[in-house]
Amino acid sequence: MGRNKRKRNKGGNNKKHRANNRNRNKNKKYEFEPGAVPVEFLKRDGDVALVRYEGEKFRVHKAHVFATLQWTEKGAIISARKSYLMPVMNERLVITNIFDFEEKDEQPVNNKTYIYGTEIRVIDSAHESSRFGLPIGTQFHFITYAETPAVGEFVAGMRNGTCSNVMGYVEWVDEKNLMCKINGKICPTEQVGYKIVNPEYLKSFAFTEA
Q1: What is the pLDDT of residues 170-179, one digit of tens each?
Q2: Domain range summary for the chain, segments of one domain joined by +
């Protein structure tokens, strides 16, 4: 008795599987977890997705998207964590302050850049709120131990450091001795771990230093 040998259609099965995968992802109904919202997928740029939510464009990392970016087609509705949606700024947008335009040239300009300055994080769970000691909704980015904060910024000490209870605006910085003063407290610059992007938000909580 011999074996039945099936004829192989080289390449044909792969094309069929790819078509089935595309159709499966296109027709898939994503489940929206707590904190997630439906967004329209536009395109993928590496590990980041460009999406549209409520008429505005946002970028979101694949870790916060409940879909496979590689197989998601343009226009598909997928699920993403709302607090991690980063707005895409319009380069033509110009913002002016009409209240102090006469003193505009006298105001100090902070052009300081940070390694993680563009990687804004958002506290979006009770676990992260407990971990960082910040309320849900706080926006921040990390400051490495080799960087020094700028005067006038609202920062917080590293949670596992000697200045974990320090939080507030930077009053002065001694870059030579690597020390700074934050809300009346002296702290080594290497112990400053976070810059709070939205300090005004903390005023509605029990953070009196804000």
Answers
A1: 999 998 889 9
A2: 27-105, 112-204
Sheet (strand 192-196) strand order: 121-122, 139-142, 192-196, 154-157, 167-174, 179-182, 185-188
Q: Which of 168, 173, 175, 174 is nearest to 196 (CA)?
A: 168
pTM score of the predicted model: 0.48
Look at phi and psi of residue 11 and say left if phi exceeds 0, alpha if psi is from -120 to 50, else beta. left
Band (pLDDT 50/70/90 cuts) for residue 12 is low
For 175-200, the pLDDT digits (tens) are 888 999 999 999 999 999 999 998 88
CATH code at 27-105: 2.30.30.140
Closest CA to 180 of 139, 147, 202, 142: 147
